Amino acid sequence: MSISAPWVCARATILATVSILLFSSHDALAFSPTTLRLSTFVGSLKNAAQSSGARSTNSALFMSASSKPRGSAATPLDKKSIAVFGGGGSLGGTIFGYLQRASNLYGTGIGGAAMPRNICACSEGSLRLNSILSKGFKLAFAGEQHMRLVDMSDVEHVAERLKGVDAVVVGTVCQLEPGRAVTGNTYEKTPNDKTTEFFLDEKRGFGDEISAQEVEEQLDVHLNLFQTAIDACKLAGSVKHVVVLETPYTPSTEPFAKILDISGLKFTYIYTNASAGGSEGPLPQWIQCKDWTFERGVQNIDGMSLESAALGGNYLSKPGYDAGDWASSLPELKRDNADIYREDIAALAVQSMLSLDWDTSRVIGLSCSGKDDEEEGDSGSAGRFRPSKPPKSDREWCMKSKLVADLLSVVN
Question: Are residues 375 and 291 in contact, defined by beta-carbon separation less than 8 angstroms?
Fold first, then answer.
């Protein structure tokens, strides 16, 4: 047995060598024509795609590849991370909820580990956010990994917590709640440190939590908070786009526009005809739908109207242009008295990130007219969106968001 074992190994080696030689000489001839045909087929596809007159099933793919990328949904595999400043507020919490749903759906291009992020000052912002999520988003929850408690007086501290974030949502004038205790083991220096919590746009959304006089007295505080947020986005280095929501009690667009221009960041500035500054007579209010959940989606189906303008890529360097000048020439909005739902504003903000190019700065004005979904009942256009069976919402981040996407399809 000791003598035959080497012969067995040698015989196996010889057989393996013969098999390889046979494969190389015979099977290679059988495989090479297939490879050639495959190469020819791929080449044909490339030539057909490059031909302007080609009409085939691949033409749509060619058009998508050649068209200019727009929003995050244009590259769904490249997940974008988004943070919301003041997510404990009524509007901020709704935006966070939409983003959280979108991050779990393929095709939105939104996601990432522990995303979205809520940027707030203390634990009160976290508690308020989860109160909104549990009611409006069917017991959704934002854990510790979604929270970033920040010292809004320290730009570097905020920037550190924005590392890895691709886009940010921030408001102009937020509800402030001073005198809140700094949450332990965060950024406190003494056990008795106090901070100011901020909410986008109001803490509960009742419409009477902020007064114009209060905002006027504390305008410097609001501007400082906005300045810190924008400077932190710039310093973080990863933020590519900022969505700014002009809240109703913003006295003037110009100082916020100036901060945006100086930063050099690309932005989408959303304003409504509910702004309190510089207008006479009764104005629409920002309201929220009673007993709303994400399954009800957009409320004012037919009444939403947009006015938009894109800012040229080199508008800052034009002769005679000063930072913030675009604020004096905003597109005029319709002066209808229809109130605007916060849920619709939130849907517009999120859809703008999905649909619009992040490399372009723009302004979008929203006004509403007519009756909303809730008021029309089963008649009118709203009835068409109320099927006998409850709509399936497992593949939608916001029901009827396609209507908002259609409105944004003509926006640059």
Answer: no
Beta strands in 23-88 (DSSP E): 82-85
State pLDDT tens for residues 55-99.
333 221 122 232 344 899 999 999 999 999 999 999 999 999 999
Distance CA 393, CA 298 (A): 13
Name 220's bridge partners: none
The predicted model gives 129-144 an average pLDDT of 93
Lowest mean pLDDT among 10-14, 334-338, 404-408: 10-14
Q: What number of other Cβ atoms are within 10 A of residue 316's Cβ?
A: 16
Query: Would you state the torsion angle of the CA atoms of residues 294, 283, 218, 90, taken in this order, to the nearest 10 degrees?
Result: -10
Q: How far apart are CA 186 and CA 150, in angstroms?
A: 8
| Residue corresponding to tokens 């597109």 | 331
The more confident residue out of 338 and 20 is 338
Predicted local confidence at residue 9, as pLDDT:
42
The predicted pLDDT at position 276 comes to 47
Sign of torsion over alpha carbons 138, 350, 287, 407: negative
| CA 244 to mean position of chain CA atoms | 11
Please say whether the beta carbons of 398 and 297 come within 8 A.
yes
Contact 58, 48 (CB under 8 A): yes
Residue 95 near residue 87, CB atoms below 8 Å: yes
For the stretch 362-372, pLDDT in tens is 999 999 886 65
Q: Scanning the structure block, which residue is given the tokens 């949904």?
A: 73
Residue 321 has pLDDT above 70, yes or no: yes
In which order are the strands placed within the sheet that holds 147-149? 147-149, 117-120, 82-85, 167-171, 241-245, 267-272, 361-368, 304-311
Q: Is residue 400 a contact partner of residue 295, using CB atoms and an 8 Å limit?
A: no
Exposed e or buried b for every residue in 287-311, given b needs 16+ CB within 10 A? Answer: bbbeebebebbbbbbbbbbbbbbbb
| Strands in 182-312 per DSSP E | 194-199, 241-245, 267-272, 286-287, 304-311
Give the number of other CB atoms < 10 A from CB of residue 114. Answer: 15
- Asked whether 130 and 204 are in contact (CB, 8 A), the reply is no
Q: How far is CA 31 from CA 39, 155, 156, in A?
A: 13, 63, 61
* Nearest Cα residue to 264 out of 245, 239, 289, 286: 239
Question: Which pLDDT does position 390 carry in this prediction?
Answer: 62
